[in-house]
Each structure stands twice: as C-alpha cells, then as structure tokens.
UniProtKB/TrEMBL annotation:
GO terms for cellular component: membrane. Residues 117-184, 198-278, 285-366 form the Ig-like domain. One of its GO terms (biological process) is cell-cell adhesion. Signal peptide: none annotated. This is Ig-like domain-containing protein. It comes from Hucho hucho (huchen). It comes from the Eukaryota. The lineage of its organism: Eukaryota, Metazoa, Chordata, Craniata, Vertebrata. It holds the Pfam family Ig_2. PROSITE patterns: IG_LIKE. InterPro entries: Ig-like_dom, Ig-like_dom_sf, Ig-like_fold, Ig_sub, Ig_sub2, Ig_V-set, VCAM-1.
C-alpha cells in the first residue's frame, strides 16, 4: 500500500499514512467539534481497535481518551468502511485544548500504529475587551485563538442584537446603565460575559450600632466586568478621603466621623459612584451642664426652672436631679421647676444625664435668693 512506517517507539509504530482533514482547529468553549482522519495499514492485517490519544510518555502505552472519566458522555467515535475515523467532542472545555492523534491496533504482532502530526485543538471562550476614551469606546470580541471558518460576530446591547458583522469590533457611546456582550453566529447560546460599568454599594461593618472608639470598616462592594481597578472614597459635603482600596478603615472611630459616605469604582468600561450610607457614631453624654431661669437675681416666691443640657448620641433618655448631692423627689425630667422659691431651696444643684452608652454628671450650680 506504499506505507511509510517509521522506526517503532516503545512498541508503537508511527505510520505516515494517517491523513488528518485539518491539523489545527480553534473552537468555542461549549460548542461541538469533529476531528477526522483517514488511515491505511499493511495488507494481511485486521484492525482490532481504533481510538485517539493526547499523551505519550516514554515507556508508557498511550491511553484512549474515551476511557477518561472526565470525558464521560462528551466523546463519540465514528468509523467508516473506507478507513475513515471521526472523533466528536461535545460541550468543549478549555482543558480539552491539546494535540489529538489517531491510533489503531491490528491482529498482528507489533501491529500498533499512530499518525503524526495529529490535530491541534484550541478551545477559547469569548471575551469583550474595552478600549477608548471616557464615553466613546471600542469593543473587541476577543478569542485566544483565531476561530475556524471566518465567523460572523453578533453584538448585543442590553440583551438586544445591535450588529452582525465579520469584524470583531464594535463602537458606541456608552451610557451608565448599558451592558454589552458578543456571540458568534450559529452559536448564539454561547455569549461572552457582558461588560458594564461598576454597580457599587457601600457595606458597613459592624452592621449594627457603632460605638465611639470601636473599629469600623467600610467596603465598596462592586459588581463589574471588567473588574474594578480603582476605588475612591468620599464623605458627603466633604473632600475625597485618602486611599484607593476596596475598604476604608476607622481603627478608632470618633463622633466627628459621623456622616454620609460613598465610594466610586472604576474599570476600563467607565466609572460610577455608589449611593451614600450613613455612619452614625454613638457616644455617652458629655458636656453636661445646668442652667437656671431666670438668669438674674432670684427673689423669694418666684418661679425658678433648672435645665439639664447634654450632648449625647443617642439623645439622653433619663435625667436625675440632685441638690447638695441628694436626689430630688420626682426629679427625673430635663427641666426641674421650683414654683415658689424659698430660702430653704438655696443650694448646689447638679444633674446626671443617661443614655444607652453611659452617663455624665454636670458640675454643681449654686442657686440662692438675693
């Protein structure tokens, strides 16, 4: 049959007359591909086994890829009477990328053959790459190998087809809410991941009440494709904060840090700010003081009102009044009124302010008749 048989390597003959229909294929991840060949063999031989393999190690027999559990349900072998053979692989994975060679075994001693160079299969997904300015962008439907058969590319804007072309490029003016993806005609179900500007929210940890002096972390949580490559932090009605990381930390937060915070996230597609989140730092009463009305001289029989003032968050919810360090009967409101002031009411008055974060006494105030 005019065979050219090379010297055997570990009992396997490389036979020149295995002819592959094509020697390289680039196919989409998730699609189906067929690798075909034809072969000849010495007269008087009967073929007993045919299969494909991808690995040949020194001193080790090649393994039939059809026996690999990872390929279960995805491979099919088809032979014909004219010594043709087809390997069909469905649901292609990137891990299927390899050089596939055909092998057959005959009923004669030493009748083990395979053919070079094989078929090199490259499996690629689709990825949208973004280039261009702030709003006017050029998108490329990118692959890691050149797809076989000059495909037609389909572009989708927010899920709707906007272009079909043999060119893999697409240009548009991008709005904040737009997303883009691409596919190849005939494989419309194998979309690329969509690209879009970051959609961001700010998360506060801990998520409950924040006590002054505690550690607080803000996280700029973002859904974006391509991934975010820059973060910016802002306090509302203030300047941008130092740092460009995904998190912003207050090691020891203070009441001055209370306010509205938001972040900006940027990828190659564009930039968007999050909505703001409130950081409410709680603290116990402070700057507690007592004031008296009227503020001038007090005459006997007049009405005198004492007021307890305090800075606190949450607001003070309980007041206790003291005269000469003894509590008043019924002295639990922010204001304490003495409707008919007498000399017996002369003394040093102070208040104590309480909230859920603690309490604080005022300094005593001397109230007396003149």
């Amino acid at each position: 049959r005019g065979l050219n048989i090379y010297p055997p390597i570990f009992g396997v003959l490389r036979i020149k007359h295995v002819t592959y229909t094509t020697q390289s294929i680039c196919a989409l991840k998730g699609s189906t591909v067929k690798l075909t060949c034809s072969y000849t063999y010495p007269s008087g031989h009967k073929v007993t086994s045919t299969f494909w393999f991808t690995k040949m190690e020194t001193g080790v027999e090649p393994e039939d890829i059809g026996q690999d559990p990872d390929n279960a349900g995805r491979l099919e072998y088809h032979g014909d009477k004219k010594n043709g053979h087809t390997l069909k692989i469905t649901d292609l994975r990137e891990s299927d990328s390899a050089t596939y060679k055909f092998r057959f075994i005959t009923d004669q001693t030493g009748g083990r053959y395979y053919g070079d160079p094989g078929v090199t299969l490259s499996v690629t997904g689709l990825q949208v790459k973004v280039t261009g300015g702030h709003q006017d962008k050029t998108l490329t439907c990118s692959t890691t190998c050149t797809l076989t058969d000059n495909p037609t590319y389909i572009w989708y804007k927010n899920g709707t087809i906007v272009k079909e072309d043999t060119s893999s490029l697409y240009s548009d003016y991008f709005n904040d809410a737009d997303s883009y993806s691409c596919a190849v005609k005939g494989h419309e179900n194998l979309h690329s991941p969509a690209v879009y500007k970051p959609k961001t929210t700010v998360l506060v940890s801990p998520s409950g009440e924040i006590a002054e002096g505690s550690s607080v972390t803000l996280t700029c949580s973002s859904d974006a494709n391509p991934p975010v490559d820059k973060y910016t932090w802002y306090k509302k009605n203030g300047a941008s904060l130092t740092g460009s990381e995904k998190t912003y930390n207050f090691p020891t937060i203070s009441s001055e840090d209370s306010g509205e915070y938001y972040c900006g996230a940027e990828n190659k597609y564009g930039r968007l700010n999050s909505s703001s989140v409130s950081v409410d730092v709680q603290y116990g009463p402070r700057n507690t003081s007592v004031s008296v009305s009227p503020s001038g001289e007090i005459v006997e029989g007049s009405s005198v009102t004492l007021t307890c003032s305090s800075d606190a968050n949450p607001p003070v919810d309980k007041y206790t009044w003291y005269v000469q360090n003894k509590t008043f009967p019924n002295g639990f409101g922010q204001m304490y009124n003495i409707s008919n002031f007498k000399s017996k009411d002369n003394g040093h008055y102070h208040c104590e302010a309480w909230n859920g974060r603690g309490s604080r006494n005022s300094t005593p105030l001397t109230v007396k008749l003149y």
